């Protein structure tokens, strides 16, 4: 088999890259280790920056998002038992975020790919990448007991944090930066109306909580929990009780509870790989970087990576220049580090760090008091939350 770009991984990064390349007539095959149903079974954050919705508009995978997505012009920060609104729309001169689940984005991209008759090979076993330091990279995989080989011009490593692409780079050619946080997020999905029409990020002495949503009838809530806690340790009742204790009296009284339809604990990590290009192999999305979910930057960073990558590949094929390819890693990393910084800072501001003691809590409350009451402070939060422009600072 031959293709121009072999994409490893059919998560949001790989699927969006596939659509962007297809629109410019560049041929790509996607190899995915799991089944499509398995990929859709992962529940992740659901806040899209305008940069991301613009990209989904560009590839025409936007109908359901505009019908069912919820446009939010602000969110609440809760501390010392009181909520304060960050007016994103006013502060940023009209920008919003779109609350639309990552699962839905992935499903829409899968449907569009299938409708366009493009090749995705699911359940591709033992994927290996070869010769990406030459002009003729190859990818091998196993299926039905046979080994298959794909010859390509480029490999796009969109295979997530545990993928094979980053792991195939010689150790001396790569640098990794990592911070692991001493707690996790216990998340619940429930068919109950959201406690508030916008998101609520809560700093409480009992730990962080987040009230999010998927629709007017489906809620997503999170609690900061010790890393040792497992989802099965938490009954639904215990979850709702703890959530009430971390919210303000009004939210706590009006919270509608019900059975969970999903419950899981996710660890929090900041992680960046430098560089993001190795000869003719590129890393994009979670394969190259992870952010803690506070601020929901993960999917948005994946989207901007693949936008930079598709532009570089289109330039290569149409204008016969390698300039975009050479600039890929630097352009991505600049944006990645800005989002990493914001996610790390927002995590530090909102979570309970027992090792920092009561004075740590007081510092957080003083900073929150400053942020919500200062125009400059609120603007800094707002412009990072809605997402900095793709060419910011260039
Ligand atoms: N061979 C083929 N496919 C693989 C391999 C492999 N060896 N290893 C992993 N994959 C697949 C995974 O099964 C998964 O479907 O690659 C895909 C990677 O998808 P994601 O983990 O969703 O990563 P990405 O597409 O970069 O999406 C980034 O996901 O984790 C969130 O917050 C993050 O929202 C962001 C988004
Ligand atoms: C979510 O809805 O799952 C969500 C929203 C905002 C975040 C993280 C997760 O910051």
What does this protein look like?
This protein has 394 residues and is an alpha+beta fold. 38% of the residues lie in helices and 26% in strands. The protein has 13 helices and 20 strands. It has helices at 12-23, 36-40, 50-58, 63-68, 88-91, 102-115, 164-167, 236-246, 249-254, 298-319, 323-350, 357-373, 375-386, and strands spanning 5-8, 28-31, 47-48, 70-72, 75-79, 82-86, 97-99, 120-121, 125-130, 138-143, 146-151, 154-157, 175-190, 200-202, 209-213, 219-226, 260-274, 277-278, 281-283, 289-290. The strands form four sheets. The chain has an eight-stranded mixed β-sheet with strand order 6-5-14-15-16-13-17-20. It has a six-stranded mixed β-sheet with strand order 8-2-1-12-19-18. The chain has a three-stranded antiparallel β-sheet with strand order 3-7-4. Helix 1 (12-23) packs parallel to helix 6 (102-115), helix 1 (12-23) packs parallel to helix 10 (298-319) and helix 10 (298-319) runs antiparallel to helix 11. The radius of gyration is 21 Å and the shape is globular. It binds adenosine-5-diphosphoribose and P-hydroxybenzoic acid. Adenosine-5-diphosphoribose binds next to helix 1 and helix 10.
